[in-house]
User: Which sequence fits this backbone?
């Protein structure tokens, strides 16, 4: 019976957690505020010194990293919501009912995708107001969307793992701080060749740089090259690992 | 509700169930039978293992040893069928505070795959005198209303067996009376209720049979009258005084020798 109900149960539970978000739209706004503030700061305050050129072209340079920061701060709410569900006993109620077992987790994952991609659209809109321009083709836009969806999915499963393992509310969202910080030690704000050797080595070999470079090339209408495959390999690898660990943690937690 | 034993198969049958958390042996061989259509109270102090047993019976936890079946289905081997037959109302009312009462009910009806969840919700709101509050977020409800909503959610789909885990803990006397009336109505309608409680008067008022869980085993199981007979009949003094259930309980578990404040949950 389980498989027949997976879709229906997941839809019912996703509907529930989307209502949570619609009733606290501040979570989507808050998710967008920090990256937008960073974007304003870097473009209008640091931009001249960093980039030298026009502010508009620095927005173009900056936006991919800003979008990743948006998602990294947004998934903190996913961990937070899951933690509260577990703590409040509602997950136990669901698990003692004849519903498809993975539905409770997938509902949080789908809600996280919807909330974060809404924040991303919001941030892109503000970037357009700040002068972001792209000559990207429809296909390139689709590729950017695909990368961002995969990035959100990967970070969401890390968030699920964090929400499942946390002992306190603060602990549930603390995992996102290093994720938010990672873009700063990447090619997101300045080219890596301006960094000291050791830092540059780290920046060039961590996943954010490959993801940022891929998105930047797609927006610029340039050939993406090997970066895209490196980015995809990182994301799929981390996603698989986080998924396996999260599902295992879930089984241990709720039986 | 006098006949508590009959030819019918037990609604809940527990045999030799053991469960440990690390070194802590919470259940040490529990045996329990609950007859269909009765209210059976599981009485015990905090940390006696009541919640652990309910979690095992609701398929949330696997026993380390022994067997347990609910409505004829094994809780380990036929977990899906058990979940079809039960409903669990947790110690801390698991309602969704962000949703309205009506939305909470409709969600459970959808998850139980019933046609027309909205109508199911409206019927229950009416039955539990929550119609007026139905459109408000459950987080604005009083403790008694929340618990009523919680119990209403448990009834959706008419499960034949309901587990109520400390349904009146933290409620004021008035709200407690509301819950008691609800439970009595339930059993009147043929539902089997296994109720855990640490309140002796609750067991005395509601239960057809009372099982006392102490230090991981059921040390007594019987009707109130049977339990009372365990003590010597009232001593003849100037007035004749039957032992209350409280006397029986304290004599059986030994007043004051609680395990030192451990709570295995």
Assistant:
């Amino acid at each position: 019976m389980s498989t027949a109900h997976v879709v229906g149960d997941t839809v019912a539970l996703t509907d529930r957690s989307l209502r949570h978000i619609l009733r606290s739209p501040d979570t989507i706004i808050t998710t967008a505020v920090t990256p937008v503030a960073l974007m304003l700061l870097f473009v209008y305050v640091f931009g001249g010194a960093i980039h030298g050129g026009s502010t508009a072209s620095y927005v173009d340079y900056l936006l991919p990293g800003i979008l990743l920061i948006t998602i990294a701060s947004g998934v903190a709410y996913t961990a937070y919501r899951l933690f509260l569900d577990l703590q409040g006993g509602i997950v136990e109620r669901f698990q003692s009912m004849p519903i498809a077992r993975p539905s409770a987790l997938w509902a949080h994952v789908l809600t996280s995708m919807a909330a974060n991609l809404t924040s991303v659209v919001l941030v892109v809109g503000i970037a357009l107001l700040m002068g972001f321009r792209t000559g990207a083709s429809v296909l390139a836009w689709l590729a950017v969307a695909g990368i961002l969806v995969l990035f959100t999915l990967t970070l969401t499963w890390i968030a699920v793992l964090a929400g499942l393992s946390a002992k306190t509310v603060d602990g549930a969202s603390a995992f996102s701080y290093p994720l938010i910080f990672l873009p700063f030690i990447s090619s997101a704000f300045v080219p890596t060749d301006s960094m000291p050797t050791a830092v540059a080595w780290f920046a060039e070999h961590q996943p954010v740089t490959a993801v940022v470079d891929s998105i930047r090339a797609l927006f610029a209408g340039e050939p993406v090259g090997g970066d895209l495959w490196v980015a995809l390999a990182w994301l799929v690898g981390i996603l698989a690992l986080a998924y396996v660990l999260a599902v295992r943690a879930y089984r241990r937690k709720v039986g | 509700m006098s006949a508590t034993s009959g030819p019918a198969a037990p609604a809940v049958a527990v045999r030799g169930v053991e469960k440990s958390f690390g070194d802590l042996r919470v259940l040490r061989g529990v045996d329990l039978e609950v007859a269909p259509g009765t209210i059976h109270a599981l009485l015990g102090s905090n940390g006696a293992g009541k919640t652990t047993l309910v979690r095992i019976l609701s398929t949330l936890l696997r026993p380390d040893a022994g067997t347990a079946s609910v409505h004829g289905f094994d809780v380990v081997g036929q977990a899906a069928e058990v979940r079809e037959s039960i409903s669990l109302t947790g110690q801390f009312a698991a309602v969704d505070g962000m949703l309205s009462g009506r939305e909470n009910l409709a969600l459970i009806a959808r998850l139980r795959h019933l046609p027309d969840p909205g109508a199911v919700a409206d019927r229950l709101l009416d039955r539990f005198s929550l119609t007026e509050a139905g459109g408000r977020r459950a987080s604005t409800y009083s403790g008694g209303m929340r618990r009523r909503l919680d119990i209403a959610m448990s009834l959706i789909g008419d499960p034949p067996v309901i587990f109520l885990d400390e349904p009146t803990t933290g409620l004021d006397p008035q709200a407690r009376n509301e819950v008691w009336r609800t439970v009595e109505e339930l059993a009147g309608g043929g539902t089997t209720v296994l109720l855990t409680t640490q309140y002796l008067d609750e067991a005395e008022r509601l239960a057809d049979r009372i099982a006392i869980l102490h230090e991981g085993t059921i040390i007594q199981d019987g009707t109130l009258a049977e339990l009372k007979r365990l003590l010597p009949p009232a001593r003849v003094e100037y007035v004749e005084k039957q032992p209350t259930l409280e006397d029986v309980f304290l004599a059986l578990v030994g007043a004051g020798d609680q395990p030192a404040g451990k709570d295995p949950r």
In short: Residues 12-253 of chain B form a domain with the Rossmann fold fold (CATH 3.40.50.300). The interface with chain A takes residues 55, 58-62, 80, 83-84, 86-88, 90-99, 103, 107-108, 110-113, 153 of chain B (CB under 8 Å). Confidence is low (pLDDT under 50) at residues 1-6, 257-265 of chain B. The CA atoms of residues 10 and 35 of chain B lie 5 Å apart.
